[in-house]
Design a protein that fits this description.
Structural class: alpha/beta
Helix content: 25-40%
Radius of gyration: 22 Å
Strand order of the largest sheet: 1-7-6-5-4-2-3
Length: 400
């Protein structure tokens, strides 16, 4: 590689750094970041190969370990998150699993928020105990519950905020303080807030994970994940785990994610502006019994949202009618929205959590989390908000 094309300016704004940060140019001087799809690398000599494997010389060894395109994505994510280091992964769930498994061993204990995406709940409830790692689920809103759950062998706190799909909030700063008091790492899944809407590291968290598949790509094109945190954790604990277990981020996907980061501020700003209007529109409809949106004053944790979030976010959830048939009639009546369990796309998406993302839970467990048969989640896209509102209006008139 010819090296970094431009030295970073400390006075650059975040939007500028999301276009410029970490760019490496080859000897050909390409404008866009290059996609290095190679698996291996060559050495000038046997001595150079030995030095790289010993860690005595810089350079790439194998793309399962590191890759120039992936490195550019990681450096740009560090600029976005304010992190010392990062590692890309094949998916968001690879990031979640690796962030915990690389640090934990049999006999350890994890405290987790109970309101989790279905696959995250599987990691905490099923996978970790299989390897002798005890777990305790708590109501993430209750600081006393976090404190009461701590054991002498507690090594990690894990939670998402806002939660999927009911948009409950966890006080990152307060929970991280409890974790530090017992020597545990705080791992935050920050997907719903987006990196622009919430900065967990600045609030005291140790590790942040993302499904980059969501808003970071933002156009439904590829899978990817990323783990960000302190240099020693990322370069030693996490890197060794990833190197030997192999959930590597594809260089092509890293390139797609780099392109997504260039437009992230523009997209998220538009989506959040639209989400605010949509939440207000739905709150005034007689067909809607409840709207969950952190940017509204009627959110039960609105004060916390103002404290730790820059905006309400591009996601919102609501209850339509009284039963599943009402929710299904609404979903099937939509024309602009696409029914999909994904989120963070340029296209507006909607899903029925009780029968998709959280279907593995019992009805009682879902009810405890506030997920009912009439609960609907939407991910706001980039369409004209007036067209979105018209589509919602049309669908609300649908009858089961």
């Amino acid at each position: 590689m010819a090296g970094t094309d431009k030295s970073r300016r400390d006075d650059w704004s975040l939007a500028t750094r999301l276009v410029q940060e970490g760019t490496l140019r080859s000897q050909f001087g390409e404008t866009s970041e290059a996609v290095f799809l190679n698996s291996g690398y060559v050495y000038d000599s046997a001595e150079q190969a030995e030095a790289r494997f010993k860690g005595e010389a810089e350079g790439y060894i194998y793309s399962r370990y590191a890759n120039p395109t992936v490195s550019m994505f990681e450096q740009r994510m560090c600029a976005l998150e304010g992190a010392d280091a990062a590692r890309g992964t094949a998916s968001g769930m690879a990031a979640v699993a690796a962030s915990l498994l690389c640090h934990l061993k049999a006999g350890d204990h994890v405290v987790s928020g109970r309101a989790l995406f279905g696959s995250c709940l599987y990691i905490v409830e099923d996978l970790l105990p299989r390897y002798g790692i005890a777990t305790t689920l708590v109501d993430g809103r209750d600081l006393n519950a976090w404190e009461a759950a701590v054991r002498p062998n507690t090594k990690a706190f894990f939670f998402e905020t806002p939660t999927n799909p009911t948009l409950e909030l966890v006080d990152i700063e307060a929970v991280a303080k409890i974790a530090k008091g017992c020597g545990a790492l705080t791992v935050v899944d920050n997907v719903f807030a987006t990196p622009l809407g919430q900065r967990p590291l600045a609030l005291g968290a140790d590790i942040v994970v993302y499904s980059a598949t969501k808003h970071i790509d933002g156009q439904g094109r590829c899978l990817g994940g990323v783990v960000l945190g302190p240099q020693d954790f990322i370069d030693e604990t996490l890197h060794t785990f990833l190197k030997h277990t192999g959930p590597s981020l594809s260089p092509f996907n890293a390139w797609v994610l780099l392109k997504g980061l260039e437009t992230l501020p523009l997209r998220v700003a538009r989506q959040c502006e639209s989400a605010t209007r949509i939440a207000d529109f739905l709150a005034d409809r007689p067909e809607i019994s409840r709207v969950y949106y952190p940017g509204r004053t009627d959110h039960p944790q609105y004060d916390l949202a103002k404290k730790q979030m820059a905006f309400g976010g591009p996601m919102l959830t609501f209850e339509v009618g009284n039963k599943k048939e009402d929710a299904f009639a609404f979903l099937n009546g939509l024309q602009l929205f696409t029914i999909s369990n994904n989120l963070g796309d340029a296209k507006s998406l909607t899903t029925h959590p009780a029968t998709t993302t959280h279907q593995r839970l019992t009805s009682e467990a879902r009810a405890e989390l506030g997920i009912f048969d009439n609960t609907v989640r939407i991910s706001v896209g980039l369409e004209d908000v007036d067209d979105i509102l018209a589509d919602l209006d049309h669908a609300l008139a649908a009858k089961p």
